[in-house]
Amino acid sequence: MSEEQKDTPMNGAQEQPAPTEGSTDTSENGARERVATSDGPPHGAEELQSRIAQIEQEREDYRDKWLRATADYKNSKRRAELERAELIRGASAGLLLKLLPVVDDFDRAAASAPAEITSSSWYEGFKLIAQKLQTILDSEGVTTIAALGQEFDPNQHEAVIYEEGGTGSDSKVVAELQKGYKLRERILRPTMVKVGKA
């Protein structure tokens, strides 16, 4: 083998010259080194810490706004439900108040019915209608206000007449002139009463 053949690479590939100072290295390692060293880190440590703090503050602000919005929604929903319930109660109270005079008429008619009528089937049917009306009132939570013999209560009783009587009847209801009714805990109509006075 001659001296020329010794100096030539065996596979026929050209020998790559070593990179000189100032020349550009196109190898993969060289590219990585350039990326890592050419521009330096994208941000300084202080700037990154500042950005993290800013993002955390924004997160807390958004969280507070979300909590406030959720609370406002729940409160408005609860208010709407209460207003709706109050509206229904008000409408029911108005309708029931209009029915009370009809109940009074049934009571007066039943109390003044002559004896020959009370034994008839017609009177039984009449009482059945009154009972159905009373069932409706009961189902809506309407109850009568106890008055006779009770201490006079201006919140539940409406004094129409004061009657002289003994010491035991002072400020007591001695007669009930018109029934009073409550709608659950609310006074629907006070009882018209006669009150004793010593």
How do the strands line up in the largest sheet? Answer: 1-4-5
Tell me which oligomeric state these chains represent: single chain
CATH superfamily of the domain at 144-198: Head domain of nucleotide exchange factor GrpE
Q: Calculate Rg over CA atoms.
A: 49 Å
Count of extended strands: 6
Helix and strand sequence: HHHHHEEEEEE
- The CATH architecture of the domain at 144-198 comes to Roll
Strand content: 15-25%
Contiguous uncertain segments of 5+ residues: 1-13, 21-26, 31-41
* Backbone shape: elongated
CATH level-1 class of the domain at 144-198: Mainly Beta
Q: Number of helical segments?
A: 5
Q: Termini distance?
A: 152 Å
How helical, in percent, are the residues? 40-55%
Sheet bearing the most strands, described?
Answer: 3 strands, antiparallel
- Mean pLDDT rating: 77
> Which structural class fits the helix and strand makeup?
alpha+beta
According to CATH, the fold-level topology of the domain at 144-198 is Nucleotide Exchange Factor Grpe, Chain A, domain 2
Describe the protein.
The chain is α+β, with helices and mostly antiparallel strands and 198 residues long. It has a domain at 144-198: Head domain of nucleotide exchange factor GrpE (Nucleotide Exchange Factor Grpe, Chain A, domain 2). The chain has helices spanning 3-7, 28-38, 45-111, 115-118, 121-139; strands at 142-144, 157-164, 173-178, 181-183, 186-189, 191-197. The strands form 2 sheets. It has a 3-stranded antiparallel sheet with strand order 1-4-5. It is elongated.
